Amino acid sequence: MKLDIASLEVFQAVVRQGGVSKAAAQLNRVQSSVSTRIRLLEDQLGESLFLRDNKRMTLTDAGRNLLPYAERMLTLAREAADAVSTKDLTGTFRIGTMESTAAARLPKVLSRFHDLHPNVSVRLTAATAGALQNSLSNAEIDVAFIAEPITSTVFQTRAVFTEELCLVAANSFAPVENSAALSGQTIIAFEEGCAYRRYLNDWLLGEQITPGTTLSVGSYLAMLSCVSAGTGFAVIPTSVLAIIDVHGTLQYRKLPGRYSRIRTLMVWRKNYASPKLDALRKLLAAGM
């Protein structure tokens, strides 16, 4: 039995988009072409891959079993084409990053990368450190920028940036230099899985500070807005604070010791090879 890559690509798109019409739009195909590809794949396998209920399509047991294999085959096909290509770089380069790195570190790097390789479409995704590692493991992204530590043995890493963490609060808030004053106060942080939230919790534990509730937010803009309003305190890399004008409304406390030199690692799967990855590594090694 020969499974062709095009049919698997259509199958994956229908799964991810939740239906034929959205998959057709993503793939720039007509709906009838997508439906035909799915029917041919089902005929070839001798199994129904989807349960069809009006316009909804949900995976059957056979479809769920096929999906991880299809994703692995599509990833390997794309990586194989990348690895042997000797032409100018083309295609999509999927980069995952923490939001702080996306805001403060990557703009100049990606601008230079685009100048050098204009035919590469960069797809940038911001997420927590935990979510990024999961996406890398599942081959949903090609490379990621994640705060140390990385303990998984399936990844390769290279240190590319160093961050210093800073405790911030509104001027009207309790003095952040007084650790005892932070007990019982609200933490404003990203959701669980954020590396810097983990570092903040470690520092609080070491200082014997017992905070109050935690307000989870989805961006540094929301975090700083809540901090400025006096809702609570947060920890933010100084590189992010350097690009935001807070008009003197905040007080700061740089965290000491190991919290003053936290490395951001460039991370990729050990079995992943690509000229696009090599080009980005070369650019970062040159000091961009």
**Residue share in helices?**
40-55%
CATH topology of the largest domain: D-Maltodextrin-Binding Protein, domain 2
The backbone outline, from C-alpha atoms, is elongated
Q: How does the helix and strand content classify structurally?
A: alpha/beta
Order of strands, widest sheet? 4-3-5-12-6
The number of helical elements comes to 11
Q: Which radius of gyration do the C-alpha atoms yield? A: 23 Å
Number of strands: 12
Judging by the overall fold, what is the CATH architecture of the largest domain?
Answer: 3-Layer(aba) Sandwich
* Averaged pLDDT: 90
Terminal-residue CA separation: 48 Å
Q: What quaternary form is this?
A: single chain
Kindly give the count of domains. Answer: 3
The CATH superfamily name of the largest domain is Periplasmic binding protein-like II
Highest CATH level, the class of the largest domain: Alpha Beta
Which blocks of ≥5 consecutive residues have pLDDT under 50? Answer: none
Q: What's the story with the biggest beta sheet?
A: 5 strands, mixed
